[in-house]
Every structure is written in C-alpha cells, then in structure tokens.
histidine kinase (Sphingobacterium deserti), 675 residues
Amino acid sequence: MRHTRNLCLILQLLFFANSLFAQSERSIQVYGDSLYQVLSKITDPEQKAEALLDLSFFWSDYDTVKAFYYIDEAHDLLGTKAKDRYYQGIFSFYRASVLFEPAPERAKSAYLEVDNILKALPDNKRALRYRIRALGSYGALLQRDGHAEEYVEVLLNKVIPMAKDIRDSVLLGVNLQNVAMALMNMQRYDKANQYYGEALQLLQRKANSEEERLTLFVNAARNRLYQQDMENARKFLDSAETVSKAIPLSSYMPTYHVVEGSYWERKNEIGNALAHFDKALLRAKQMNSQDIIPNILYGQYEALKRMGRYKEAKAALIQVLPYVEGKSLLRNKQTLYYHIANLNTLTGNFKEAAQWYEKFKLVSDSVFAHAGEDKILTLEQKYKTAERENELLLAKSKFQEQQLSLKRTQSWLVIMVFASALLALLSVLWYNTSRNRKRLAAQQELLLHQELKNLQQREKISVFNAMVQGQEKERSRIARDLHDGLGGMLASVKLQLSAVADDQQAEQRKEETNMELYNIINQLDQSVNELRRVARNMMPESLLYMGLEAALGDLCNAMRHKGLDIEFEARDLRNDYDQSFLISVYRIVQELLTNAVKHSDASKVWVQCNENDGHFYLSVEDNGKGFTFNKNPERASGIGLSNILNRVELLNGQLEVDSVIGRGASFHIDINLNG
C-alpha cells in the first residue's frame, strides 16, 4: 500500500511538472530537482534506490555527472544488498544508459554484461524486463554503427520472444516498433507499416505509455513521408502533438520537430519547416544529442535550398561537417561533400566547388574499395558454409550406406539359416512379393518421372528469377557507380576547366584559346548528360521514387522519335506495388518497345495498363510489319521475347500474342496480383 501511495505521488508530480515548466534548461533543472524532492517521502530503501536509478535515467539525456551521482547514491543506500546479482545487473544497465551517447562502445559492452548477469535469474520477471531493455539498447547501438540486420536479428530472436514470455504488451509494442524502424531504414516501408500497426494496437490503450506512443507516432509519420503519403503522415503527427502535451520534456521531442519540419518542407511551407527545425535544434543542444543535431541541420539545408537561399543552406551544411568527419561512415562524408560542392556551383564559386568535388572523389574511391572488400568477405563466408554443409551431407550418406549394408548382411544370414525349412513358403512369398514390387516400381517410376518434370520446371523458374534479380542488382550498382563515381569526376573536371576559363578571360583575351576551351566544356556537358541518361536507363529513378505510371510515361517519351509516335495510357494504378513487381513490369514494357523500334518498322505504338479486381492488365500494340509467333517458349523467336515470357511466368501472369505478317503485332498480358 505504501509503495502504491508513493507511486501515485510521483505520477502526480510528473504530471504537474510537465504542465507547469517550459522546455528550457532552467525548467529541466527545476523538473529534475522536483523529482528528487519526491524521493524524500519514500521510506523503503529498495523502492527509494530504484526511484534514484529512474531519476538517473532521466538525467542521462541532459547531465551525465548528475546521472552517475544518483546511481552512486542508490548504490550507497542499498549497502551490502547492492552486491546481489539482480542489483549488479540493473546498476550495469543504468551505467550503460548514461554512456549511451558519450561512449557508445563502452555502453555496448555494459549492455551485454547486463544480459550475462541477469540471465542467471530466469524466474525473476523484473530481471527479464531489464534484459529486454538492455538487449534492445544494445541492438540500437548496432544499428547506429550500420549493422541494421544484426539489430533486427537481436530483436526478433531474443528481445521479442522474451517480451512474449512475460506477456508485457508495452515492451512487446516498443520492440515491434524498433523492428519497424529498422525496416524503415532499409527502405522496406510497406513491411514497416505492418509492424507499426501491430505496435499501435498494443500501446494505444496502455496507461503511462506516453513516451512509447510519442516515439511510435513520430516514426510512423516519418515512414509515411518516405512513401509520399502526406494524409496519413499528418494524422500521425497530430497524434504525436497531442501526446507530447503530457510529456513536454521527452527526449524524443527534437525528433518530433524534425519530422514536423520535413512534413512542412514537403508541403513547400518553408517558414513552418524552419520554425520546427529551430525548435528541434534548441532541444537537441540542451540534451547534447550529437547524433540528431546533424540530421536537424541537414533538414534546414534542404528547406533553405528549396527557397533558393543557397548561402544559408551552405552554412547549415558546414555546421554538419564536424559531426560527419568525426565518424567513420564514408557514405555520409561522400553525400555531404557532394552537396557542398553543388551549392558552390549554384553560387558560381567554381574553384571552391572543384575542391569539394575532389574530396568527394577521394571518399568515393574509398567507399568503392570498402564495398569490394565486403563482397569478398561475404562470398568467402558463403563458400565456407557451403563446404561444411557438403561435408556433413557426405558423412551422412556414407553412414546410411554402411547401415544399409549391415542390414542386408543380417537378412542373408537369416534366410540361409531357415532356407531349407521354409523354401516352399518363401517361393510363394517371393513370387507374390516380386509381382507387387514390379507393380509398385512401375507406379513409382511414373511418379518419379512426373516429379522430375515438376522439379525441372521449378528449377528453371528459380534460376531465371535469380538471374533477373542479379541483373537488376547489378544494373542498380552500375547506375549508382556511374552517377556517383564517374559522373562526379566528370563534373569536377568540368568545374575546374570553367574556373580556368574564367581566370583566362579575366587576365587576357585570347578568343581562339577560350573558344577551344569552351568547346571542351560543352563536350564534357554532353558526356555528363549521356552518362546520366545511361544511368537512368539502367535503373530509372522515377520508377523508385515516383511510381510505375510516371516511369512508364518517361520511358515512352524517351523512346518516341521522328517517325515513331508512342501513345501511353494508364488507369487506376496504385502507388504501393512491390519493387520487384515494378522492375519486372518496367523491363517487360522496355523490351517490347525496344523490339518495336528495332524490328517492326511501325509508325505508331500504343501502350496501355490498368488494374481491375486484383488483376494487372498490360497491352503493347503496333502497326508494323508483324511476325510469326511460336507459342513454344523454348522456340520463341529472339532472346528478348523469351525473357518476356519468363518474366510474365514469374509474375504468375499470362501472355497472349496476336501477330500477323503485314498487320502489326499485339501483346496482351494479364497478371494475377493475388497470387
């Protein structure tokens, strides 16, 4: 009863403090002191010690010295009881929480130590809850280091099963949300939506879960923004704003303002966007959160660049430099150097732009080198794993052969012992058994033949699917390498030549030399444009970011030329098709249009696509010279048409070809979206 009264008193003061104090350093100090004053009314040493540890958790976001002080105070209060395994584990947990931001490597070691200490108390539910929190925080640090897949593995294989065992819906909801965030970071937005929905069902009616729901609403809104779903993003942000009124000092408020700023930036209301970014920056600096500050500054850069305020946008990016250059992630440096160079180009500062492009080129070379090393290590691991599996299979096969040989020997011994007495009976049995075996063997042969046919078909589909996926990944990689690597280097050369041309023009007027130099610059411009066209053709950006309709429209426009008119029409298409479906449909249309351009001598091509009642319909028709179509896929004329047939089969679709010599050709495809 006393514990219940103390808990209610703390909750009342929490509510009072949250509603009374503004989000400033002074209000944070007053709020923390108020929590400490409540502790004086708690008389039970263990309850008071755990309240001190929770107070340390609050201060870990603002003042690490105070946070460690309250941990030491709790330790002294418990005396010899602090040596119990349970308290050793939770003290390690709270120390790791303080180290989370300033010393992440030490924090990771401490979180693993918590799990190691407390797993010896399997029947203690409180210990299990701390293990769940420790492993979740450890996984979050793994994700921060770029190991998102390991983070998801920790959540799915350890944290979530433990939360289900103790039936703690709040912990389960929090970690389902963590899985959603990891999937969101890997750009699997539809899958992330499912996990966010499950987490919301668990948390929306739970008391004292405001912090968890605020985090959930903010990240669900961010996921919707990535999908350009502005309507649902606004709903989640409104819910987050409502919850935040109950916890205005939450450490997640900077992230809330960042997502709000991104929303208004996409709505082109830059004033609102910058106001939220300023609020986020103020809170993040109060909390000394070194990881979120560069994200806020980058959001300010995007908003300022959209307004055309390039100098202020550049100043925002320059502030990001210390945070990025202090880390080992080369991708972040590569992106930052490129954008700074681009801003210098927009402001006409070609010399400085060339310097930043040179930095971008050097980092890009390192990124590509690391990527190659990672692929080699991955292939080596797969190879070693395959070798071990083959050795196990071989040993198992030899063992089975030995067992079979032994059984046969035993059978022959038994037969020889009883042969004379049972010869007549065995003859009859042998005759009947032989006849049954022949009949069974014939049936098994038919079944085996059918199974082999089915297996060959499945293997054919599997091989083609793997080949297509490999081709698309390689296309994407080459397109990214062309655009980020060679494109950046060509742009850098062009900018350096432009700077030299400007210097020459200022110092002396040599018109013929300058004319040749500008011709070279124009040729470089054409080379960059051609490079970008090839990169877009290999993996069109409009397909990944604007959807199927926009990508097919761009494709038709690109392939239209004098003498060939391409008419495109799309109806009732969705924006949430799987990426593999989008790429397959795009490649089918691309192959059909390429065949029409190369072989049909057509003057007009019609491309139509629509979705109706769970089916996706696609048709490509031309008025060209036509051809004779062979319905046998193995004898289909041309590799391109064979690829189209295989892609349609992979999508669980049907292809109908209507072509007559001299009357053009029509391709009609029906894909069942429900499998």
Notes: Confidence is low (pLDDT under 50) at residues 1-24, 368-384.
